[in-house]
């Protein structure tokens, strides 16, 4: 089952993922800066919040994302995505069945699947209705030091999947270009954006990594 992504949403660029921030007002201000600077997609992820705060924060992000024309994707919890009418959900290996999430969220939802370094998992995810697949971690991540590592080659080997491929894990403006050249459609970033001294400038630096490849890149 191959599903098309809403044409209003870009298929390349920076996929910003929220940091764990219990202060909703501050979180919104931080996200607004990054959306204004040109992030393409936003994932709401908060591994420390309880269900009440997650619900509040996800709902608060919704109008901000709408204003900027950016899809809001909820991490871990497709039920929360359905409850608030978010644009999609991101599911890892412990986050439930993709087919169940797809049935609940509908054909138009942007549903992503973590595939780590596993091509077969990515093929199954696409067959099960994933709108995009995510590979990583490509570099050591301060946010998730335990993340399973993936080689850059997994991006070269998955060009035929037919859905956007997202790269994640320790991505900085200095190493993002290598992943884009290898085939990443989007780079998903937490600390490189939100812990940067100037998150807007960092966002623009990631976007610059999506310029057309030069002859030098191809060599
Ligand atoms: C875009 C993107 N890719 C991968 C992940 C990781 O998902 P998961 O393995 O479920 O780990 P947690 O994020 O839940 O810690 C992601 N969230 N987003
Ligand atoms: C949430 C997450 N998932 C990963 C994976 O490899 O699946 S790496 C990761 C952390 C991403 O944060 P940062 O950009 O700060 O490294
Ligand atoms: Mg998860």
CATH class: Alpha Beta
CATH-level-2 architecture: Alpha-Beta Barrel
Strand order of the largest sheet: 1-2-3-4-5-6-7-8
Low-pLDDT runs of 5+ residues are none
Class of secondary structure makeup: alpha/beta
Number of helical stretches of at least 4 residues: 10
How far apart are the termini?
36 Å
**CATH superfamily caption:** Aldolase class I
What's the overall geometry?
globular
CATH topology: TIM Barrel
Count of extended strands: 8
Q: Which bin fits the share of residues in helices?
A: 25-40%
Work out the count of structural domains: 1
Proportion of beta-strand residues: 15-25%
Give average pLDDT, whole number: 96
For the sheet with most strands, the description reads: 8 strands, parallel, barrel
Compounds present?
ligand LCLJCK34, the ligand Cc1nc(C(=O)O)sc1CCOP(=O)(O)O, magnesium ion
User: What is the radius of gyration?
Assistant: 16 Å
Notable features of this structure?
binds magnesium ion, 8 strands, alpha/beta, 219 residues, 10 helices, TIM Barrel, binds the ligand Cc1ncc(COP(=O)(O)OP(=O)(O)O)c(N)n1, binds the ligand Cc1nc(C(=O)O)sc1CCOP(=O)(O)O
